[in-house]
Amino acid sequence: MVVISDMLVQLGQMTLVLLLAPLLTGVVRKIKARLLRRKGPSVFQPYRDLLRLLRKEVVLAENASWLFRVTPYVTFAAIWVAAALVPTFATGLQFSWSADLIAIVALLGSARFFLALAGMDVGTSFGGIGSSREVMIAALAEPAMMLMVFCVALIAGSTQLSTVATFMASSQVGLRVSLGMAMIALIMVALAENARIPVDNPATHLELTMVHEAMILEYSGRHLAMIEFGAFLKLLLYISLIICVFFPWQITIVGAAPLSYVVSVGAYLFKLALAGFLLALFETATAKMRVFRVPEFLGAALMLGLLGTLLRFVSESF
Amino acid sequence: MIPGVDQQVWCVAALLGTTLLAIAANRSNKSTTVVYGATLVISLIAFARALSFLVAHAEATEMVLPIGLPWLGSHFRLDALAAFFLAVVNLGGAAASLYGLGYGSHESAPHRVLPFFPAFLAGMNLVVLADDAFTFLLCWEFMSLASWALVMAHHREADNARAGYVYLVMASFGTLALLLAFGLLSGAGVGYGFAAIRSAPHAPSEAALVLALMLLGAGSKAGLVPLHVWLPLAHPAAPSHVSALMSGVMTKVAIYGFIRVVFDLLGPPGWSAGIVVLVLGGATAVMGILYALMENDIKRLLAYSTIENVGVIFASLGLALAFQANGLGLAAALAFTAALFHVLNHSFFKSLLFFGAGAVLTSTGERDMEKLGGLIHRMPLTSFAFLVGCVAISALPPFNGFVSEWLVFQAVLRSPDLPQWGLKIMVPAVGALLALAAALAAACFVKAFGVTFLGRARSPVAAAAGEVDRCSLAAMYGLAALCFLAGILPGLVIDGLAPVAQAIIGHRMPVQANDPWLSIVPIAESRSSYNGLLVFVFITAAASLAVYFIHRFASRAIRRGPAWGCGFADPTPAAQYSGASFAQPIRRVFGTLIFQAREHVDMPSPGDPRPARLTVDMHDLVWERLYTPLTKAVWFFADRLNQLQFLTIRRYLSLVFATLVTLLLVLAIWS
User: Any idea which UniProt keywords this protein has (chain A) (predicted)?
Assistant: First the structure.
């Protein structure tokens, strides 16, 4: 019985993230447009974009290799698997034990690794510049993320996301300075990893400051659709992660009544919408930085993560 | 047949016999095939015996040969630790021999390689088997000299002679440190046998000194910063399959020496020893990979990345020392197993990557990445194997590099159990260094693969490259398969390592084979678990699902066209991103401090037809701040001492007289 419910939760979660991801991006775009006093496209525009791209033929560069064609699917699959392992509305996912938080970080790293390689495959300068900057950002964002993981794992005593969420949802946590620092670090990393302002601008094309969009410049058609879908999923994943680790209120713990699932799905959607609104607000209020200011931004995230980890020991000893 | 030490010694004897054969059949055409064939068979047998020893949890066996010092003989012993390292050595040896069967036919001077190759393998086997200080040191020197001879195989090429010289100096220095360490351990009355050393008590001050000497001796062979300088010179200079052995296997023999002395012979040292090893390991990991990122010679890049991996292993060993000193046996076993797992993994993927670099070298004659590119079209099989190696070494799931890295992080997360404040704070900080090193490693191998194999060919030789022979490919694919298998079935490896941890630490990780779905659970399932097999299945299933749905219900049309060049299409392949430009952002972030990197732009004024030039000024601070002053000091004193050789007889006599009086005075005051 438990296995069946866990399995249902797992499948429900996998479908949910897949269905919700474009909507989240659509909502963020809509709110951003409204904040700029534009009307903005419908919140369902990302779905239409994906369908349009999927139906189009692929234009491949003459010297594109098999790696270029495989990468969109590999990155999409890696991100989807990672997203399926982050508890959104309920803990006790059937497969959550197959990869913990560290493995989720590494799965996202795999997706980026292949995307960066694909950027170099055709041999144009744009792909190279995008890849090289993407790995530079990742080289700083990943350790910052790991320190956040350390901090949370040292407090919760586990790197297993279901256990972490259960622990954080219990009343014994309280407010902790180190958790606050870890949260800020995670938000900064999330901004960088999702190519959002102030690190990168998701709305630009052909600007020398762009990073992620330059890397995928050669992609078209269904390949581009897969990469865009992966990017939508990644944004959802990071927001879910922040919610699951730091705001797991109303998340359904294993073995709860069926009704609680309805409540927790509602709570999750509400939290997601709120996060989307805050992201749009933040992006409208700040400007993009020069690319060589990014290391300072991420260095701050790294320091926050480290301070959070060390403070955890200090706070424990008093 | 019970696996025992005698069989391993027979294998070594056979390897030495092969050396004699190679000398005898010096100029024969068949000698390449015969020698590598023989080493392949012998290595496989030795590997199988070592593996069966581990699997059978067999008892340690010893033997004494009446050679060496007359009153001592040569002691050999096979225990779990030795069996594990023998397995690593001989598997690497077998892969290198298989590769050599193909690669060796391109060798320009086979008579300089063939006799030393089996001797080098024999030397590494002997170091692991040795059971007394004298034999250990003798075999260590034998291994060093055999590998030195291989480094000097192409001694007429520029820089190789210098590489050989630096290697010889550093190897001698390392052996000197080891000699002093064993001298301290054997003491006045303990004796040379490891059994005697193990049972003798060691004072804390003595233990600290031995640890420092081992860090110098074994650390210089393994490539700990700042003793690493010889490694990126010597490893690439050798033929590629020997580079693979030196990087993938010989550094592991050095780590074996460190473990044998510090963990086994010395007994558990204090926790401060752990902190030293930990910090050195973390610093080595980050420095090594930063050097690698700045490098454009593919074999040197791989050699620098070896330094990073050695750093990871030492950091993990430092963790094990810290936990063991505090009586946290299970955590120590976890850290120790992680270190051994990484030893195994690194021997797989580093050999694989060196084989790939060797294949590129054979078919293009180039090691400089800036002259390569586009090889994925010309050498599809090699490039796929190399890609597997890159993914594995970048610690990405579901391959093996990730599993050992994950275990190290799990051990780092046990740091709250440690009572000392220094350790509590240093362990997560070193964890951060390791995370940084892992992220930089991914960047480094995007560069290594991207610049070498992707894009367009940057030179005519790269455009005309062809696939390499079957033996080389077989060696590469064998190792790639091992990388993959160790990644998806890590539980089996951990269980295989259990007897080693049990013998050295006194504890072992929980049995993994009984966990459902072959997942690995280091401590408890609620704490952390990982299942490489499921992650792989999920990714494959998700990707296949996406491919199926899209190709079935959406479009599957493809059109080929020229790459979009913003209206200025395809100037020359040189306009691509190069290795140096790829590393430029990271150079600007880390390099200004660590390499004192400065960029100078020489921009001609308008109307001046000169091309603009960007020059980058980088300094290797280890060389400039440590080795150059040291060499200068040595030269200075050598010059001064040199004057002693040109004295008159009167002055010589007075010198002798003065020395005699001084010595007598010292003796009088001393007693």
Answer: Lyase, Membrane, Transmembrane, Transmembrane helix
| Residue B564 DSSP one-character state | P
> CB neighbours of A291 closer than 8 A, spacing ≥ 6?
A133, A209, A211, B585
* Surface of A (88-107) touching B: CB under 8 A: 95, 97-100, 102-103, 106-107
- The ranges assigned to domains in chain B are 1-187, 579-602+611-619, 622-670
Phi, psi of B154 (to 5 degrees): -110, 60
CB contacts of B416 in chain A (<8 Å) are 154, 313, 316
Q: Verify whether the Cβ–Cβ distance A100 to B387 is below 8 Å.
A: no
- Residue B374 is nearest to which of A63, A66, A99, comparing CB atoms? A63
How far apart are the CA of A40 and the nearest CA of chain B, in angstroms?
Answer: 28
Task: For residue B342, name the pLDDT band (cuts at 50, 70, 90).
Answer: very high
* B598-617 confidence digits (pLDDT tens): 888 888 888 888 888 888 88
Local confidence band at B667 (pLDDT 50, 70, 90 cut-offs): very high
Nearest chain A residue to B406 by CA distance is A102
Question: Pick from B431, B526, B566: which is nearest to A150 by CB?
Answer: B431
Q: Do A84 and B529 touch (CB under 8 A)?
A: no
User: How many C-beta neighbours within 10 Å does residue B517 have?
Assistant: 13
- Return the HEC string of chain A: CHHHHHHHHHHHHHHHHHHHHHHHHHHHHHHHHHHCCCCCCCCCHHHHHHHHHHHCCEEEECCCCHHHHHHHHHHHHHHHHHHHCCCCCECCCCCHHHCCHHHHHHHHHHHHHHHHHHHHHCCCHHHHHHHHHHHHHHHHHHHHHHHHHHHHHHHHCCCCHHHHHHHHHCCCCCCCHHHHHHHHHHHHHHHHHCCCCCCCCCCCCCCCCCCHHHHCCCCCHHHHHHHHHHHHHHHHHHHHHHHHHHCCCCCECCCCCHHHHHHHHHHHHHHHHHHHHHHHHHHHHCCCCCHHHHHHHHHHHHHHHHHHHHHHHHHHHC
Using CB atoms, which residue from B402, B546, B577 is nearest to A77?
B546
**Residue B68 or residue B276, greater confidence:** B276
Contact list, B449 vs chain A (CB under 8 Å)? 117
Find, among A94, A142, A95, the residue nearest to A116 by Cα: A142
- The ranges assigned to domains in chain A are 2-317
Say whether B451 and A305 touch across the interface (CB within 8 A).
no
Closest CA to A132 of A148, A115, A149, A145: A115
Q: What pLDDT does residue A88 have?
A: 86
Please state whether beta strands B61-65 and A58-61 pair in parallel, antiparallel, or not at all (unpaired): unpaired
Site from A17, A55, A98 to mutate, B interface, most B CB atoms within 10 angstroms: A98
Residues of A in contact with B410 (CB under 8 A): 159
Chain A residue closest to B401 (CA)? A106
Q: What is the pTM of this model?
A: 0.95
Q: Interface pTM (ipTM) of the complex?
A: 0.95
Residue A50 half-sphere exposure toward CB, CA atoms < 13 A: 20
User: B633: how many CB neighbours lie within 10 A of its CB?
Assistant: 10
Within 8 A by CB and 6+ apart from A224, the residues are A53, A72, A216
Which residues have a Cβ under 8 Å from the Cβ of B457 and sit 6 or more positions away?
A: B372, B373, B374, B375, B378, B463, B465, B573
Mean pLDDT of chain A: 88
Nearest CA in chain B to A155: B416
DSSP code per residue over B491-536:
HHHHHHHHHHHHHHTS--PPP-TTSGGG-B-SS-TTT--B-HHHHH
